[in-house]
Amino acid sequence: MAKLTVISGGKPAAERFETLVGRHYDLLYRTAYRFTRSVHDAEDLVQEVCIRAYPRLDELETLDQPHSWLLCVMRRLFIDQLRRYERGHVESLASHDEAGFASDAPGPAEETEAELRSRRLDYAWRRLDRDQRSLLTLHDVEGYTLAELMDMTGLKEGTLKSRLHRARARLGKLLQRADGIPALKLRAGGTK
After folding, report:
1. Is the dihedral of CA 47, 49, 52, 57 positive or negative?
2. Does residue 31 contact residue 74 with C-beta atoms inside 8 Å?
3. Quick one: 113 and 177 in the same domain?
4. How many Cβ atoms sit within 10 Å of the Cβ of residue 117?
5. Which of 60, 142, 143, 176 is most buried, most CB within 10 Å of its CB?
6. CATH number for the domain harbouring residue 124
7. How far apart are CA 34 and CA 41, in angstroms?
């Protein structure tokens, strides 16, 4: 009968992988959620990144910043998924509190305004192309520097700057356009 031999002082691959990815899991999930705007899709995206990363564990352990490699893989997987599925499931960022009203909770007017802002942002965000969405998420939301983005994407600094500028400008125009759309149309998916 075959016997499992463990090298003394060494950890099994699964434990090493869990330790390595565990340090970066929150970042991976946050980024995936910002890419997909869906809890379910974000979980699937992080799982797919882990599936791709596990066979390359030895390589990952030698990297100074494995999170950059993991995020690069995530960005590519996200873009590939968008190419395969023209429209993904997108959930609103609005959170619903089932607990009821508390004395310091916002009133109905504030809740309505917050919901409208969230719908407008969702409307604009969904209309950005996949590259614009991923670059804005990584740079403006997660705070990665241009140098880090250059490593992740393989793009030159000037190209990144111009793409970020165009993405911000497009988002601004889309948000202005969303201001003129009635709330019912925003809820129903709005116009393109």
Report:
1. negative
2. yes
3. yes
4. 14
5. 60
6. 1.10.10.10
7. 10
* Predicted local distance difference test score (pLDDT) of residue 182: 64
Q: How many separate domains does the chain show?
A: 2
pLDDT tens digits for 20-70?
888 999 999 999 998 888 889 899 999 999 999 999 998 988 988 898 999
Give the helix ranges, DSSP H, for the chain: 13-22, 25-36, 39-53, 57-62, 66-84, 108-126, 130-136, 146-153, 157-179, 183-187
Query: Cα(7)–Cα(135) distance, rounded to whole angstroms?
Result: 43
Residues 113 and 170 in one domain: yes
- Domain enclosing residue 24, as ranges: 13-84
Pair 67, 27: CB distance under 8 Å = yes
Asked which of 77-86, 92-101, 105-114, 182-191 is least confident by mean pLDDT, the reply is 92-101
Quote the radius of gyration of the chain (alpha carbons, Å).
Answer: 20
* Maximum separation of any 2 CA atoms in the chain, in Å: 73
